[in-house]
């Protein structure tokens, strides 16, 4: 059990009167959330301070460091977003260049923006010709990116990649780390979807063990923890731990939630005692699931590097990812993580059980039978919305984002400079960022995504067309 939770519970049951924040005063009996609020405190005597940890919070940090085998680990109560912002800020000075995977989360682009950094992009390989979602970043791509920066006279402050990706694709982190370190460049890995890696056989290893200098993990994505809980891990001395702490104190709230921190402590307790066994049982469940769906012809399951992810598509093109997603939700009450153009994503965790796999397998088999009884002569248009466009940068992100902008119809935007991010959410990966020229490919990507009713952020609905924000030509 979490020591912090035990102490919070003990304190809530004591006769100490709270002449301090928070304002609910632990007096919400009879109201919703009363049980949670009973252990919701501020930095009072005996409970330490996250930004100057010397007691129980320091012990939890040390526990995380020991569990993941790091030189230092930091608790994140503002999610992986705060860790990514701190990592970029600690690694790269203003005006420097960072080499980053184009399929990084929006928080990485925000880190580029606020630090006035120049981004040079590494484009992931495409996984297959049908779904075309982002694959891995290869060591050769990193080496080429570093070489091109050096030839242009640019010093690379850090390399940033995402592994596993949202769809569960893992890059060769070890080889990439060797490549980076040969040039004395630190490697930052957004491993938000991989907090479970390294704890059981049959799973990829964690970037922490493979040479990465900073690794950011979301506990809440695949481990038994609450939303917003994450950790940032430091290995080696290429990036200053003191700078990391400084920027964490900037990007994290000064009133950290003890409820969230106790959830992180409990998560580590479960991971230590049951993690390997639960993860290995998920592999057994997955093997049974694969056997049950392997003969489906109209519905296809793709099994990426991360065994906790399953991608579902209709390879013949007779159903879109969104249609499969909607059927699974509306008819079978199965809520998937996301839908893209040609596929949808089911996420599992160490806390799932055989029932979760069985219900999905049975639903897919029923959908398969329904497709067999339909006229499938006319397939739906094959989507390209998984393939990231490659727009050209016309000005740095920070200059474009701070420039005067105007909203114009999407049809009139080709050739203009984007003044905002446009992205599918989830997963929150921009396909156009401020400062990039809007190409015909970008507009086509947007049109196709909206036609398939995918969740787009960064557009405004106009009378006759979608509106997109561009840099005012008079300010260029």
Q: How would you explain this protein's 3D organization?
A:
By secondary structure, this protein is of the alpha+beta class. It folds into three domains: 3-272, Type I PLP-dependent aspartate aminotransferase-like (Major domain) (Aspartate Aminotransferase, domain 2, 3-Layer(aba) Sandwich), CATH 3.40.640.10; 277-372, Alpha-Beta Complex (Aspartate Aminotransferase, domain 1); 397-475, Orn/Lys/Arg decarboxylase, C-terminal domain (Ornithine Decarboxylase, Chain A, domain 4), CATH 3.90.100.10. Helices cover 36% and strands 16% of the residues. The chain is built from 14 helices and 17 strands. The strands form four sheets. Strands 1-7-6-5-4-2-3 form a seven-stranded mixed sheet, sandwiched between helices. A four-stranded antiparallel sheet has the order 8-9-11-10. A hairpin with a 3-residue loop joins β10 and β11 (343-347). The protein is globular, with a radius of gyration of 24 Å. Mean pLDDT is 93; it is low at 381-386.
Structural class: alpha+beta
Number of domains: 3
CATH superfamily of the largest domain: Type I PLP-dependent aspartate aminotransferase-like (Major domain)
Cα-based radius of gyration, to the nearest Å: 24 Å
């Amino acid at each position: 059990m979490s020591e912090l939770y035990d102490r919070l519970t003990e304190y809530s049951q004591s006769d100490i009167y709270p002449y301090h924040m928070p304002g609910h005063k632990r007096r919400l009996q009879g109201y919703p959330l009363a049980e949670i609020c009973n252990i919701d405190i501020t930095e009072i005597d005996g409970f330490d301070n996250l930004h100057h940890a010397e007691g129980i919070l320091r012990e939890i940090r040390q526990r995380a460091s020991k569990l993941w085998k790091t030189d230092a680990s930091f608790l994140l109560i503002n999610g992986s977003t705060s860790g990514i912002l701190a990592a970029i800020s600690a690694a790269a000075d203003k005006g420097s260049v960072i080499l980053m995977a184009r399929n990084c989360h929006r928080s990485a682009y925000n880190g580029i923006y606020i630090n006035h950094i120049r981004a040079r992009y590494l484009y992931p390989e495409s996984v297959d010709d049908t779904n075309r979602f982002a694959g891995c970043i290869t060591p050769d791509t990193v080496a080429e990116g570093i070489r091109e920066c050096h030839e242009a006279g640019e010093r690379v402050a850090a390399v940033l990649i995402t592994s596993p990706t949202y769809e569960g694709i893992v890059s060769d982190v070890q080889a990439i780390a060797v490549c980076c370190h040969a040039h004395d460049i630190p490697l930052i890995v957004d491993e938000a979807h991989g907090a479970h890696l390294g704890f059981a056989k049959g799973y990829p290893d964690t970037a922490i063990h493979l040479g990465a200098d900073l690794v950011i993990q979301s506990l809440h994505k695949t481990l038994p923890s609450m939303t917003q809980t994450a950790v940032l891990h430091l290995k080696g001395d290429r990036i200053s731990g003191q700078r990391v702490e400084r920027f964490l104190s900037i990007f994290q709230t000064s009133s950290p939630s003890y409820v969230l921190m106790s959830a992180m402590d409990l998560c580590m307790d479960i991971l230590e005692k049951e993690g390997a066994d639960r993860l290995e049982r998920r592999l057994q469940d997955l093997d049974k699931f694969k056997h049950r769906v392997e003969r489906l012809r109209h519905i296809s399951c793709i099994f990426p590097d991360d065994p906790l992810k399953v991608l579902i598509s209709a390879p013949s093109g007779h159903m879109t990812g969104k249609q499969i997603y909607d059927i699974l939700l509306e008819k079978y009450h199965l809520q998937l993580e996301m839908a893209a153009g040609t596929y949808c994503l089911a996420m599992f965790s160490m806390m799932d059980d055989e029932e979760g796999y069985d219900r999905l397998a049975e639903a897919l088999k029923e959908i398969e039978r329904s497709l067999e009884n339909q006229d499938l002569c006319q397939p739906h248009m094959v989507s390209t919305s998984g393939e990231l466009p490659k727009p050209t940068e016309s000005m740095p992100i920070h200059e474009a984002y701070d420039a005067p902008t105007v909203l114009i119809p999407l049809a009139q935007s080709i050739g203009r400079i984007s003044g905002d991010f446009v992205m599918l959410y989830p997963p929150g990966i921009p396909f156009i960022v401020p400062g990039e020229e809007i190409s015909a490919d970008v507009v086509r990507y947007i049109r196709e995504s909206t036609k398939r009713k995918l969740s787009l952020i960064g557009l405004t609905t106009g009378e006759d067309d979608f509106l997109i924000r561009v840099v005012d030509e008079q300010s260029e």
